[in-house]
Structure formats: C-alpha cells, structure tokens
Amino acid sequence: MAPPIATDLDDFRSAVRTWCFEHIPKDWESQQTNASDDDFVDFQREWLQTLRRAGFAVPHWPSDHGGGMPISQQIVLYQELAAHNAPRLVVPFVAIHHAAATLFAAGTKEQQRKHLPAILDGEVWVQAFSEPTAGSDLAALKTRAELDGDAYLINGHKVWASGAQYADWCLLLARTDPHAPRRQGISYFLLDMTSTGVDVRPIRQANGESHFCEIFLDDVRIPRTNLVGSENAGWTVAQETLGAERGLTMLELTERLANVGFRRLVEQCVQPDSSGRRLIDDAVVLNGLASLETDISGVRALAVQLVHKHEDRTIQPADASVVKLSYSEILQRFTDFGVEVGALSAQQIRRKSRSGGWESGAWVLDFIGSWEWTIPGGTSEIQRSIIAERGLGLPREPRGAR
To answer: Across the chain, what does the average pLDDT equal?
Structure first.
C-alpha cells in the first residue's frame, strides 16, 4: 500500500496518530519481556508487515519499491511512532537500512530483484564488518576471499555482528588483494547464512542479552554473482552501508529518548512514595531533569537538521559524527540518572522488552546497554577526531598517537 498522501503536515500527523492508536499493540512491552527467540522474531516480522500495509515500513526507499514518502512526512512519522511508544524494528533493521542502501547504491539488477522484495517479506540481514583486530580500524580487516573458479573461498572471523543468529543473509567485507593498500584490497559480498562453513556464536553480554555474535568462516564459498561492485572496491561500497546508520535512524532514537525515556523518568519522579514525598520536589533531582531535557531537546534538533541536510545534499563531513556523539553521551547520562534516582529498586535484576530501545525504564539494564553506543559505528574518541579534523579544520593527530 502506498504511503498516505497529505498536502498538509497537520493532517498527515493526525492520520498517523489515529493509525498508532488503532494498530500499536497495547501490551507489546509485556509480551516481549522474557520472550523467546522465536517469539521475538515472529513479533518483529508481524510488526514489519503491519507497518508495510500502512506504507510506514520503508518510507525512505524509492517510490517504486514501496517508499517515496516526502522527508517532511518521514520526520512526522518517526516523531509520532516514538510519541506512541511503537515497537522498534530491531530484527529487520539491517535489512531495511544497511542492506537496502547498499543494494540501491551498488547492487546489480539481479541482486536488487532477488533481495529487495524479500526484505519487505521479512528476509533478515546481518552486517559482518568488524573483526577482533579490526573494529574501529575497519581497514585492518584480515578475513580473506580467494577466487576459486566461479566462487570466492572465504576464511576469517567476524565479531560484534548484531542479530546474526536470526539472519538469512549477511553483508560481508573480505580482503581480496593482501598486497594492495589497506582500503584498496577489500571486496564486498552478499553471503547466504545457510552456506556450509558458516558458524554463528552468540556472545553473552553484561545485561544478560546475546545480541552480538561472532561469525566464523571456514572455506565458505560465495558465488561471484554475489560480489557487490567491483573486486577490490568494497571500501567505497561500504561507505553507502555505513551512511545508512545516520539520518532517520538517529531521528528515531532521539525521539524515543524524549517521548518514551524522558517521559518515564518524569513519571517516576512525580510519583509519591509511602510517606507522600516526591523525588521531583528535591532541587537536585529537578535540576538534573531540567539539564537532561535541555540536552535531549538539543540532540533532537540536531537529528532533524541532519535529516534535512541529507535530503538537501548540504551535509558536511562532521555533521553525522556530531549527532552520533551527542546521542551516545546523552544516553549514558540519561540512563545513569535513571539508576541514581531509582535507588535500590533500580538495582534489581529484571528483563526488559526485546523490541524496545535503551529507554525501557529498567534503568540498570538500560545503563549497561547504553555503553554500546560509544563503541560501534566509530567510538566516541574517533567521532571527536572527525569533528576536530573534518569539522573544525584542526591539525590531524600524529599517526603514532592513534
């Protein structure tokens, strides 16, 4: 179904708001707390199809592929979904953002015909870029791909592959020319996760989840037709993939922080305890809330600005880093504050919804999870270097200092 068309944004907002009241499952958070892997994946697939029928699943895709929503409407859509605490598309995230962006930018017609409709039907993807010795320094990856007839033979080890245990397909970077300069000897592949030699091992995390995985590749054969772009040009293709992590993704997360997380925090602070006292009546707590609201309002504005810059093609090299760094740091302060005001009850170990974000109200688990954001997609230290060098024009750090 095509996205709703409205010439007036207020009318569109009203239509989305009505849809949210009618279609967001009222008890989805309780259903998804302690949900099994199968129930989690099934729920995510069903939610994707619910959004798809409304034209809300992939508004950022081209119109002939089920998208085409004007950017002003996309902003409203994500604002309203966050305001009504809609489930996040966690399992399909890499597919509808990273895989789609890669296929649209560099995929062959056959690759697009095969995978884009399948993604809308629920095909799950994982991104396998990072390695034990090549995380933030992605160009240092060592996974090898050697041409063997009509296929490439892949051997290597990937890590921090989010949701790999659910994935049907994988976005894979591997080195095809070990003698070329680091960024010039990498190729980009589409890997069928059912291939012989693929071993996925979930990593147990401090918050009890196993979202991240290791992927071991032992003589895995990938057909030459699954090469994306030219051989040894994978670094360029990867920039299209990584670019999908910004823009609307950050808009969704900042809106959820404001409309779901901050709202929950305030509600907790205004509830009287057994003696009738309220946390918000404490000047220190009130000042902390005011400071967080100011920070969140600022990063929300930056995220909206970033989306418009993407659309207008006026984005500067450091703009995405500013938003990513700001969100990461604010999320940590926010969840830390939640743990502090939650006192002893916040220390209780409990599960959180598997289809939400880092603002569930299970403050200790949210706080532990918030540290993810200062590492993947470029650590906070790297983001600061990008802002300094590419945004402010400061001299580059000495090479040995990195």
So the answer is: 91
pLDDT in tens, 141-193: 999 999 999 999 999 999 999 999 999 999 999 999 999 998 999 999 999 99
Ramachandran sector of residue 297 (left: φ over 0; alpha: ψ -120 to 50; beta: rest): alpha
What's 315's DSSP letter?
A: -
**What tokens appear for 335 in the block?**
């969840």
Q: Which percentage of the chain shows pLDDT scores above 70?
A: 96
Q: Which two tokens stand for residue 51?
A: 């959004």
138: which 2 tokens? 């992605």
- Please state, in angstroms and rounded to a whole number, the distance separating the CA atoms of residues 309 and 321: 13
- Cα separation of 157 and 212, whole Å? 14
Q: Which of 328, 359, 243, 336 is nearest to 288 (CA)?
A: 336
Residues β-bridged to residue 133: none
**pLDDT for residue 306:** 92
Q: Is the distance from CB of 157 to CB of 131 less than 8 angstroms?
A: yes
Residue 15: how many CB atoms within 10 A of its CB?
17
Q: Token pair for residue 134?
A: 């090549």
How many of the other CB atoms lie within 10 Å of CB of 55?
A: 20
User: How many angstroms separate the CA atoms of 168 and 245, rounded?
Assistant: 20
Residue-level pLDDT at 280: 95
CA 351, 356, 362, 365 torsion-angle sign: positive
Confidence (pTM): 0.90
Q: Are 247 and 307 in contact (CB under 8 A)?
A: yes
Q: Is the pLDDT of residue 133 over 60?
A: yes
Beta-ladder partners of 228: 188
- Residue 124's SS3 state is coil
Q: What is the pLDDT of residue 6?
A: 56
The pLDDT of residue 3 is above 80: no
Q: How far apart are CA 39 and CA 252, in angstroms?
A: 24
Amino acid identity of 198? V
CA distance 305 to 298: 11
SS3 173: strand
